[in-house]
Design a protein that fits this description.
This protein is about 75% helix and about 5% strand. By secondary structure, it is mainly alpha-helical. It has a two-stranded antiparallel ribbon. The protein is globular, with a radius of gyration of 29 Å. The chain starts with a helix and ends with a strand.
Length: about 300
């Protein structure tokens, strides 16, 4: 009778470490998913901040590019082939510098700082061109090229970081993102062309600079929401080296025992792979010298000695 009324002793058993780890792994994603606020289409709200940011950045880029050759011909009196040469080098460097900007963001600056730096540089570059002098024109082009290198690769990376690996929504997210690119490019040609026809080149370039400021303001306004959405997907906006150091620190403290075990198994697999790749080279050197070489045996971990035949 007392046994049926009183608490059972088996119910007071401590939970094993493996079950605690599995329970924690099940709870953490739910907590992370609750932090990601979903907007239209089931996508996080941070995507739409990136949509607006990229739309206005493309407005800046294509608005300036639509006026560049005409500005050199009519404003500076250049020949068409010289103007086309400047246009060619400008567009080529615009697509080259993202390689450098992405590397600097991963290793030194971080994604968020790179986007902000790129937006500021491009806005300053647009307003430098409006001065109408040749020296400031070249300075403005250089700032636009460098700013695009910082801005373009990193904002596209943020779109992918808002979703976990294998998330079916990711393709739709990039479709929405590129709709912003096309929308900004379409509006830029009409708006900047109209300002050029009625108010001159400086108004067109100034409008492109204002568009970049609006895009940068949109990003700064939604930066906290963007960061929350990225972290909810299990990713980070920090420098890649810092993220690796944090993961190593968590593993060394024992907070992620499964990751530590996985790292050790990967390390042993890599050492075995290196040994298997170097074994033929060791045998060849031993044969040339008439000595012996040791070949690792992956079955029991012992080294097997192989004596080369005398030549």
């Amino acid at each position: 009778m007392l046994d049926t009324i009183g608490p059972r002793t088996n119910s007071l058993r401590p939970v094993s470490q493996a079950s605690a780890i599995s329970a924690g792994s099940e709870i953490e994603p739910k907590a992370a998913q609750s932090e990601q606020k979903l907007g239209p289409g089931g996508h996080p709200w941070g995507l739409y901040f990136l949509f607006g940011t990229e739309m206005w950045e493309r407005f800046c880029y294509y608005g300036m590019r639509a006026l560049l050759v005409l500005y050199l011909i009519e404003g500076f009196g250049w020949q068409p082939h010289d103007s086309s040469s400047v246009y060619k080098w400008y567009t080529s460097l615009v697509y080259l510098t993202p390689l450098i900007g992405g590397y600097l963001a991963d290793r030194f600056l971080g994604i968020r700082a790179s986007i902000i730096i790129g937006g500021i540089l491009m806005a300053i570059g647009e307003f430098a061109i409006t001065t109408g002098t040749t020296s400031f024109f070249y300075i403005g082009l250089g700032l636009l090229i460098c700013g695009n290198g910082f801005f373009k690769p990193n904002i596209s990376t943020l779109v992918g970081k808002m979703y976990k690996e294998g998330d079916p929504r990711r393709d739709g997210a990039f479709t929405i993102f590129y709709m912003g690119i096309n929308l900004g490019a379409g509006i830029a040609g009409v708006a900047c062309g109209y300002l050029h026809e009625h108010y001159g080149f400086r108004s067109g370039f100034a409008a492109a600079g204002v568009g970049m400021l609006i895009g940068l303001s949109t990003f700064l306004l939604g930066r906290k929401q963007i960061q929350r959405d990225v972290e909810a997907a299990g990713n980070s906006m920090e420098i890649a080296a810092k993220v690796d150091a944090n993961e190593c620190g968590r593993s060394s403290r024992g907070l992620r025992p499964t990751k530590r075990i996985a790292r050790s198994s990967v390390t042993s697999a890599r050492s075995c792979a290196r040994s298997s790749l170097l074994a033929p080279l060791r045998l060849y050197v031993a044969q040339r010298r008439g000595g012996c070489a040791k070949r690792p045996s992956f079955g029991n971990g012992e080294a097997v000695s192989r004596v080369s035949s005398s030549r």
